[in-house]
Amino acid sequence: MGRLKSLGSSLSRLDAPLTYLPNDDRAARRNPLRHLYGTARWRRLSWDVRLAAAFTCAMCGRIEGAKGQTAADHIEPHRGDPALFWARSNLQCLCKPCHDGVKQAEEARTR
User: Cys-Cys link to 93, which of 20, 29, 53, 87 (CB 3.0-4.6 A)?
Assistant: First the structure.
């Protein structure tokens, strides 16, 4: 416990206040439903979407067989609307490059 006591005095000498903490609520304000991505319900829905699409990207047509190389993507951004978040008809299968690059850039432009 001696180390923890000495850490307190080091923290008080920080030049600038910390601007980001892992539990910061800024991410939650941007996407209030973010916590739902970790639920069993989302994992099941995501799997069903990708399986129905035969792991084929709706944008580029790439077929991905490796685990984690596809994502269930919201066609219309849900922007915190639970009905739109869970709507199966609003989901598509995308490969990681299309989801993480092309689609995210499109959504950033429309914000």
Answer: 53
